[in-house]
Structures are given as C-alpha cells and as structure tokens.
Amino acid sequence: MDPRAPLEHDRAPRQRRGRVRPVSVAPMMDRTDRHFRRLMRLITRHTLLYTEMVTCPAVLHGDREHILGYHPSEHPLALQLGGDDPEALAACARIAAELGYDEVNINVGCPSDRVQSGNFGVCLMKDPARVRDCVVAMREAVELPVTVKHRIGVDELDRYEDMLHFVDVVAAAEPDLFTVHARKAWLQGLSPKQNRNVPPLRYAEVHRLARERPGVFVEINGGFKTADAIAEQLERVDAVMLGRAAWDDPWLFAAVDQRFFASEAPAPTRPAVVEAYLEHVHEQLAMARARVEAGSRYKGPSATILLRPIMNLFTGRPGAKRWKRTLNELCQRPTREGLDALPAFAVELEAEGAARDRARAS
C-alpha cells in the first residue's frame, strides 16, 4: 500500500508478521545486556526480550560480536535500534535478520541528551512522517516484524490527539506493533531517570488508542510490577512491557510462562536458576582469562557486570540483604569457591522463605 495514503482505521482482520507475545522485557540501557538476558531466559522461556538500544553507526561500523552477539537460548529476542535515517535503519534491519534476531524495533521514546544530539529517540515523535519512512524502509528490507516504541507525548505535543496523529501517520507504513510508554517526555528540564518517574502515567489514553484504532496492535509500558497488573492490562491491550520491575524483581517472571503463554512446563526454582547462571559466569570468566593470556586489550566483563543480574533474585524474600551482601563481596573477590557456594546458599534462603510462608498461612 502507499504509505502516504490515508489509513483505514476499520480494516480487518489485523495483520502482523509473527505472533504478538503478551509479555516483554523493555530495552534498558546498562541493564538488558546479554548477561541479564541470559538470566531472564532461565526464568521465563517465552517472554520477548530486548537488547539495549544500539545506534545505527554502532551496528554498521562497530564490533558486531561485541555489540550484537547473543546466546541462542535468548530467543525470542528483539534488537532495538536508534536512528532517524531510513537507509541506515534498513541496513541495520538486514544485519539483524542475518544475525537471527526475531524482531527489530525503532526507538522513538528515549529522551537522553545522546538521542537529542542525534535527532532520534523521542525527538522523532515531532516528525511522524520520518518515522513512517523509516518503518517503510525497514519493512522493505526484511521479513522480520518491525515495531515502534514511543511515548504518549513529548514537550508541548502531549494531548491524546497528538499521539493519535503520530500513530495514524506511522501506521500507514504498517508497523507490526506500537509499544506505548504511558508517560510523556520532556526534552529539557528532566533527566532520563526523571522522565521515567516524574511525568504521570496515563494508561487510559493507551486504552483509548487500542479501542479507537483496532487495526493496529498496541502494547502498553510503564509502571507495571505484578502478574496481576499484567493480566488486568491484557483485557484492554494486546501486550504488556515491563522495564525496571524486571531488573528490580526478576523473579516475578517465574510464573509468566504458565499464566500468559499456556506453558505446561514446571516453574523454575531459584537454586536451579542460580546454578545454571553460574555456568554462564564461569564461561565468561574463563574467556576473560584466555584474553588476558593472549594479550587482548578487551578483557571481557568484570565480576560485577556478571553478578549484578542475580543481585535482586531474592527481592522481597527472607535473606535478600544477606544474598546481596554475599554477591557484593564476590564482585570484589570472585573466587571459584565463593561462586560455587551460591547454589547451596540459594537453597538455604528458599527454605527460609518457605518456612515463613507456612507460618503466615497457619
């Protein structure tokens, strides 16, 4: 179809490349690296995972294994791209397809100084025609699902009608999903961290978008912290994305597969996840030692980078502070003996938690 033609809002049935996964973990800078994704895949087999945002120049000219490499177990996995040039984004989408990614996403939501200087991220909400052209180029380049993650508004363009206009223009290019962070963003006056918390959440407007534009798939993002909250949102939208909650309490995903993906596989246990994740840690540390012996300038991830994904594994459970204290000590002195003791420590903490649960139930 002509991407500049008016969108027929009542077209049916909806069409999409690939399946819509009802739950995803948001792309987060300095969080959703390959180590955190490896942990999450040990907890949930079906949740869609994202990379950190990667800029087009990094994809096109950087060390692809270092920047884009991932473990096969991480599927389904989406690559989030930062850029505003249709040709460059199309080239990056082709690379994503060649590397086996399951989806590719364009970032239209990040408000950091970095994206402002490059005129991408949430800046692009002010130029929906360019986003449309980017989606057109990416969809012509690959057969992967191409999705858009954006805010509910930016600066003075923060009315529902402004978001609706953005979606209508971009939807003409037929992106496979709109992920809407239900907060507006301020390009000046708020830091990226403040933009995640200060602007109020406006869920009702995302729900209204899903009702009034049934021809598009809508995912909602922002502030969800429990499985019950996910279930409530899925009555109104197609999918739910969780961000900081996944980092702060990754174990909330332990029941996601059974509840939202109809999985019949048993839920994991924390000790089993710790033991499996430590295999990854030992593998990474062994590779780092090999690099040092080979004289490589890149030594690989530190113990802190490797262990921080499991730092919050016992959030809300007895012994959570002891667990973090033990991991912090290992970050400073990562001995084989100390690392290998972690599964038994996890068993101990699980037993304490089970005892507390029984006492509360009696």
TrEMBL record:
Site entry (Interacts with tRNA), positions:
N107, K193, R196
Q: Which residues form the active site?
A: C110 (proton donor)
EC number per UniProt: 1.3.1.91
A GO molecular-function annotation: tRNA binding
| Protein's UniProt name | tRNA-dihydrouridine(20/20a) synthase
Q: Which residues bind FMN?
A: P27, M28, M29, Q80, K149, H181, N221, G222, G223, G243, R244
Q: Where does the record place the region Disordered?
A: 1-21
Family note: Belongs to the Dus family. DusA subfamily.
The DUS-like FMN-binding domain covers: 25-332
Gene3D superfamilies linked to this entry: 1.20.120.1460, Aldolase class I
Cofactor field: FMN
List, as start-end ranges, the regions of compositional bias called Basic and acidic residues: 1-13
Its function, per the record, reads:
Catalyzes the synthesis of 5,6-dihydrouridine (D), a modified base found in the D-loop of most tRNAs, via the reduction of the C5-C6 double bond in target uridines. Specifically modifies U20 and U20a in tRNAs.
Q: Which of UniProt's keywords are assigned here?
A: Flavoprotein, FMN, NADP, Oxidoreductase, RNA-binding, tRNA processing, tRNA-binding
Q: Name one Pfam family in it.
A: Dus
Q: Which reaction does it catalyse?
A: 5,6-dihydrouridine(20) in tRNA + NADP(+) = uridine(20) in tRNA + NADPH + H(+); 5,6-dihydrouridine(20) in tRNA + NAD(+) = uridine(20) in tRNA + NADH + H(+); 5,6-dihydrouridine(20a) in tRNA + NADP(+) = uridine(20a) in tRNA + NADPH + H(+); 5,6-dihydrouridine(20a) in tRNA + NAD(+) = uridine(20a) in tRNA + NADH + H(+)
